Amino acid sequence: MTITQFFKSVIIGIILGVLLVACASNNIRITRHHKKIPKEIEKSRKMLYDITEGSLGDRKISIGFMRFSEYKKYGSSTVIGTCNLVLSEASSEIDIRKDYWYSFSLKEQILLLGHEYFHCQCPFFGHINGVLEDRCPADFMNSSIPDSICINRHWDIYEKQLKEGCNGVRRHKSRDTRAQAADVQIR
Ligand SMILES: [Zn+2]
User: Fold this and answer.
1) 184 has a pLDDT exceeding 80
2) Cα separation of 108 and 26, whole Å?
3) How far, in Å, is the centroid of ligand 1 from the Cα of 116?
4) Nearest CA to 111 among 59, 100, 19, 67?
5) Which residue from 72, 96, 80, 161 is spatially nearest to 124, judged by alpha carbons?
6) Ligand 1 centroid – CA 85 distance (Å)
7) Residue 182, phi then psi, degrees to nearest 5
8) Is the pLDDT of residue 185 over 50?
9) Where are the domains of the chain?
10) Residue 50 C-alpha to ligand 1 middle, in angstroms?
11) CA of 74 to the centre of ligand 1 (A)
């Protein structure tokens, strides 16, 4: 990295860092935690990439399983995914909770990845909250990620939103601007 690149990284980092203050300061890390995408995640990432025709699931955003020290600090057992700013590279990366990942169906995995890529790739640090008549989240960018029951009932809605890719930021009229550090799955 040249000196110019370094300063560019720092400046971009500071700008994004300011945006993230409204989100959560503990979503910032100095260096990358993940170098290679684990093959268990890669399969679902590729499917997300194909479904959205490349709008979500950019390989340049690293992704991997969350370190124990990371999810311990959220003080919640329901933290399933986070988007983290990597200051040294002016980039971002995604953490996924390993134990939840293995308990998820393919659709749940794709939706969780879509949600985190939406944060990191678009980038969009808010959430789009609101519920359907049956109390299921109306949007896959809800701060409570839809569970398997909601996904099975409303996959067509969520799939349509995924396909909008970053254009979906327009849906955020009534979004909760206080984005949370971590995404949870609760009903
Ligand atoms: Zn989120």
Assistant:
1) no
2) 25
3) 6
4) 100
5) 161
6) 14
7) -135, 150
8) yes
9) 3-184
10) 21
11) 14
Å from CA of 102 to ligand 1 middle: 19
Categorize the per-residue pLDDT at 71 as very low, low, confident or very high, splitting at 50, 70 and 90: confident
SS3 at position 126: coil
For ligand 1, the distance from its centroid to the CA atom of residue 88, given in whole angstroms, is: 23
Global pTM value? 0.80
Query: What length is written for the chain?
Result: 187
Reduced to 3 states (helix: H, G, I; strand: E, B; else coil), residue 149 is helix
Q: Which residues of 18-29 are buried (b: 16+ CB within 10 A; e: fewer)?
A: eebeebbeebbb
pLDDT tens figures, 135-171: 999 999 988 889 999 999 999 999 999 999 999 888 7
Q: Which residues surround ligand 1, an ion (CB under 5 A)?
A: 183
Q: Is the pLDDT of residue 87 over 70?
A: yes
> At which residue do the structure tokens 């009932």 appear?
153
Round to whole Å and give the CA distance between 71 and 82: 10
Helices (H) then strands (E): counts for the chain: 6, 5
